[in-house]
Amino acid sequence: MAVLMLAAGAAMASAGSVQAETVLGATPPAELNPAELPEADLAVQAKPADQWTGLLNRSSLLGDMGGLRSSLGQHGITLGLSETSEYLSNVSGGLKHGGEYHGVTTLTLGLDTQRAGLWEGGTANVSVLDIHGDSFSADHVGSLQTASGTEAEATTRLWEAWFQQKLFDGKADVKIGQQSIDQEFMVSQYAGTFMGTMFGWPAIPSYDMTAGGPAYPLSGLGVRLRGRLSDQLTMLGGVFAGDPAGTSNSDAQQANKHGTAFNLHGGSLWISELQYGLNQPGDGQLDDGKPKGLPGTYKLGAWYQTARFGDQRYDDTGLSLADANSSGNAAQHRGNYSIYAVADQMVWRPAEDSSRTLNAFTRLMWAPGDRNQISFSANAGVTLTAPFDGRDSDVAGLAVGYVKVGNHLREYDQDTATANGNPLYPVRRDETFVEATYQYQITPWWQLQGDVQYTLKPGGGAVSSNDSTQTQRIPNAWVLGVKTVITF
């Protein structure tokens, strides 16, 4: 790996304005299109200078891997391998100054049944994660909106294993198997540019679904249906195992450490999403053969989970959980639910064929505050692609995230202050997260990203673990980060 990084460093010095498709997403990519194979290494028999040029311009670092990818492709099989590495450092405030490295290697195998000589419209996918390094946010910042979407417990785990079949001449499809629903539901195209966790998988499902829901680094068994209702409207819906951890263990990732629990207990998770595409290619919204305006995507969705969820304030006798006479057993609520809306809109482009675009996104979510730690969350931001001449694949972005603590949890903190005779005990209310980032596409297979984050009232204004008097909140925190993604 050291040799690889040295070679890539030399590539950065020479790459200049190499154009490539930007890699987006706060979590590792899961889905493959088996019809699209990485390009072969066309420079194998060329002169040394041409070999170097071929290395810089190929879509993946290893190219055709000595003919392996081409050979697999003849049988409908695709092979993907990528490494995401990050270093984050808390330079001010929070719980502890200093930094940590963490990363994830993603291996994916895809199968196109038609190219394999079987039947039309079938696609299979298996993905494995090797997560390494140390988590950062819990020890250094204490935030609800954690600093990185790749932070997770170090292990090697099965992530996804599913089969998808097109139906009705491609107007619908069904996917069955182990799925990470953050790859399709609640997704914001432009929010995926940012490193912060909640710009990928939002705060409400992260904290309110059992074990954080079937989303990276976990996944769950389920069935997903998708159908195109018109040129502009698409309906997405599914039912999934409600508890991806597979146990009542409070550490969900440890409980399902290798992703092979395949749990079908703990209720079920039902989710649906209506998607509207504005000025999308092939949607019929044309003027003289061209789109009438700038493209956008708008989504409205909801989820419901069938299980029991503990009240955040009251016990099963009606007393506050902070009361010395409490049974300690939270009152139970039947089911849990949330509604959400997502908007992605390109707002400016100097010319129709220009790579430079200004894009905006917003994502709003609500859930009941009696049984949930978070009752409202919001993301909003802007991204600018091709911010400089000759840097068509670079992206600059500025975004803000906001979470509101549920009313019963706020009242529990107030009860705790009363029970302890400590009127200065902090009451958790809300947290605001701001991130500025820049993605630099060094080569088509290598991306480097710099990041600055500021968290206002980490933990929603939680008491600092460094304060023995239990009167001081966690100080506001500044975090600096760097991320690199290499596609092999």
From TrEMBL:
A molecular-function term among this protein's GO annotations: porin activity
Gene Ontology cellular component list: membrane
Signal peptide: 1-20
Keywords linked to the UniProt accession: Signal
InterPro entries: Carb-sel_porin_OprB (IPR007049), OprB_Porin (IPR052932), OprB_sf (IPR038673)
Gene Ontology BP terms: carbohydrate transport
Highest taxon in the source lineage: Bacteria
Family: Belongs to the OprB family.
Name the UniProt record assigns to this protein: Carbohydrate porin
The species this protein was found in: Aquitalea palustris
Source species taxonomy: Bacteria, Pseudomonadati, Pseudomonadota, Betaproteobacteria, Neisseriales
